Amino acid sequence: MPNTLFDVTTIGEALLRLSVPMGNRLEMASCLDVNPAGAEANMGVIIGQLGRDCAWFGGLPNNPLGRLVANRLLASKVDIGGVVWMDSGRMGVYYVELAGPPRPTKGIYDRDDSCAAKLTVKQIDWDRLMDTRILHLTGITPALSGTSRKVVETVVQKAREQQIPICLDVNYRAQLWSTSEARQTLIPLIEEIEILICSLSDADRVFGFRGESENVVKRLSEMTGAHWVIVSVGTGGVVAYNRQEIFRQEAVPVEIVDRIGAGDALAAGVLYGWLKEDLQLGLRYGVVLAGLALSQHGDMVVTSEEEVQSILKGGQGGIKR
């Protein structure tokens, strides 16, 4: 494998998440917790904490809010040398009302015209972005704006020209675009990629594939030709297919504190396994990291390789002194 500057590079939008504690209502809020967020950045901070070289690319405003996000990435040893700092523009924001049954957790976006959505093809340091073992994308970025869609299409085109593997997590967001628009845009982007990650519910909503997870993962493989297809099944764990064999990994037991960010954590685990040339290891890391995401406040997981390995060995719950 050729020498590269990074193990993983990724590009997308970082946001600020403003949330109320579990059980509180946004409409009655007197204060809000502030945390950086964003699917690609969420994945990147985990890869960095697991000791891998990761770079995040995107647009940030040159103000304290942009620096808040940058500081969190740097704390996890994520390279931000490819960030485009903008003197005008804004951070995307989303508000979260955490809730337990019978109420769902709700998210409200305020991300129009963010710096990330305005990022253009000409502003990206392409040599730096492509100096990687694998590129990670999500289906969120092309939904942000016309320029964002062009950026993702160009990323995929250049990666294919340079034979750089691509991992894409579908991550459908109904508040950003319709299922038909998502399907039309994503299908050309995911043909013959290295890793496709998709939840069972997104496979149904976006591609019309429903039924048993083993059947869904095979249909996604047949449609795309992806080398690896990973389907997340919530409490049912994950199912993977490499065009020859089905692999399954059960979810880890977890007491849910915050439901957001688990899918990005799963993606980080899968990428970690791919870098180790062991996708089954990636599935095991993925379900543990997803469990850790569910057990913590905020979108970005705080962890270490030592903690993940301890949980894999059975060191779950209780008090450690």
Write the topology of this structure.
Layout: E1 6-11, E2 15-20, E3 33-37, H1 39-49, E4 54-57, E5 59-61, H2 64-75, E6 78-79, E7 84-86, E8 92-97, E9 106-110, H3 115-118, H4 126-129, E10 132-138, H5 146-161, E11 166-169, H6 179-190, E12 195-199, H7 200-207, H8 213-224, E13 228-232, E14 238-241, E15 246-249, H9 262-275, H10 279-294, H11 305-312
Parallel strand pairs: 1-4, 1-10, 2-8, 4-6, 5-7, 10-11, 11-12, 12-13
Antiparallel strand pairs: 2-3, 8-9, 13-14, 14-15
Helix pairs in contact: 1-9, 9-10, 10-11
Looking at this protein, list some descriptive labels.
single chain; 321 residues; alpha/beta; UDP-N-acetylmuramoyl-L-alanine:D-glutamate ligase; nine-stranded mixed beta sheet; four-stranded mixed beta sheet; 11 helices; 21% strand
What does this structure look like?
- The protein is α/β, with parallel strands linked by helices and 321 residues long.
- The chain has a single domain (6-312), classed as Ribokinase (UDP-N-acetylmuramoyl-L-alanine:D-glutamate ligase).
- It is built from eleven helices and 15 strands.
- The chain has helices at 39-49, 64-75, 115-118, 126-129, 146-161, 179-190, 200-207, 213-224, 262-275, 279-294, 305-312, and strands at 6-11, 15-20, 33-37, 54-57, 59-61, 78-79, 84-86, 92-97, 106-110, 132-138, 166-169, 195-199, 228-232, 238-241, 246-249.
- The strands form three sheets. It has a nine-stranded mixed β-sheet with strand order 6-4-1-10-11-12-13-14-15, sandwiched between helices. The chain has a four-stranded mixed β-sheet with strand order 3-2-8-9.
- α5 (146-161) links the parallel β10 (132-138) and β11.
- It is globular and about 50 Å long.
- It starts with 5 loop residues before the first strand and ends in a 9-residue tail after the last helix.
- The mean pLDDT is 95.
